[in-house]
């Protein structure tokens, strides 16, 4: 979901995002280049101009998010955890499914099993940042 600066509290509409006269500064996590490119492409397809981009590490990102001076895409559950408002416009909400499964009859080799366990543990550790359906 898309968070927004506190100066827009109470009156930000999706039309404001398309207004090129409004200066829009975005925060991005510095370690996830592919995800950032996907977000930028998404905004470009919506004809939303990014005037400024800042890339910060995840720890510093949380600190800056509390200041609410930039736009940022975050998991909805992270917004709830940090008590950040976000745009409710369905056209601006990105949703994707994450699937974890186990193989029933085919044993994994050690390397694949280790990778599977790493992914599973990662998602369990960070499950507060994902919406589970």
From TrEMBL:
This is LysR family transcriptional regulator. The lineage of its organism: Bacteria, Bacillati, Bacillota, Bacilli, Bacillales.
């Amino acid at each position: 979901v898309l968070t927004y600066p506190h100066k827009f509290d109470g009156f930000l509409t999706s039309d404001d995002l398309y207004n090129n006269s409004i200066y829009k500064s975005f925060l991005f996590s510095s370690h996830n280049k592919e995800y950032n490119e996907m977000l930028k492409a998404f905004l470009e397809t919506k004809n939303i101009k990014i005037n400024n981009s800042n890339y910060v590490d995840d720890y510093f990102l949380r600190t800056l998010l509390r200041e609410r001076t930039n736009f940022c895409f975050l998991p909805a559950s992270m917004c709830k955890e940090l008590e950040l408002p976000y745009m409710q416009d369905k056209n601006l909400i990105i949703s994707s499914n994450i699937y974890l499964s186990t193989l029933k009859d085919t044993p994994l080799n050690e390397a694949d099993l280790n990778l599977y366990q790493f992914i599973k543990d990662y998602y369990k550790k960070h499950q507060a940042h994902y919406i589970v359906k």
